[in-house]
Amino acid sequence: MVRRHLRGTRRQGRGRRSTALPCIRGGLPRISLCSAGSNDGGTVATRLAVGVDLVQVSRVRKLLTDNPVAEREIFTGRERAYCAGKRNRHAHLAARFAAKEAVLKALGTGLGPGTRWTDVEVLNTPLGRPRVRLCGGAADSAAQARASDVEISLSHSGDYAIAHAVMFLQPTPGTDHAPTPAVPDEGCRCVST
């Protein structure tokens, strides 16, 4: 998918018009939810940080085939053991790679200094639900962002694997309200093509 910044709308073959959506500036995608039930009877704002990543399974397969050491540098022993028993092992590894990327995007750090791929570990509950375990630099970044939990969703089909991560962030100390939302840029329109 390519994002284009356009003014207004654009024709997309056969007379169809694309919908123009406002661009939001201001950094990470964040959503604020208010819930009743703070200790003082007021409302508490919960901020969410979202990350998503799409990976081509064939590229992960090629990376791991061409560079066998990469598998140990990217995936923990438990992740490798889980995927080893799967019929389409590389699709499961690609989904975990996408999850690591999505979590790092939600943190807003990417794979920065002091963070390793294995600092984000994707495990499964006995019922198969994927869960994230953070350690090292990723855990430090999560603590700094005041993250209280991370939920992920993984899927793969054909040559693609995708993961979504939603990180729950605690309110900043001294505030009990949602942060100011990002302001749309009046002169910019984003259209997916």
Put the structure in a nutshell.
This protein is α+β, with helices and mostly antiparallel strands and 193 residues long. The chain has 5 helices and 9 strands, in the order ββββααααββαβββ.
What does this structure look like?
A hairpin with a 6-residue loop joins strand 3 and strand 4 (43-56). The protein has helices spanning 57-66, 68-74, 77-84, 89-107, 136-144, and strands at 3-6, 21-24, 30-36, 43-56, 120-124, 130-134, 147-157, 160-169, 184-192. The longest helix has 19 residues, at 89-107. It has five helices and nine strands, in the order E-E-E-E-H-H-H-H-E-E-H-E-E-E. Helices cover 27% and strands 36% of the residues. The protein starts with a strand and ends with a strand. By secondary structure, it is α+β, with helices and mostly antiparallel strands. Helix 1 packs across helix 4 and helix 3 packs antiparallel against helix 4. It has a single domain (30-174), classed as Ribosomal Protein L22, Chain A (Alpha-Beta Complex).
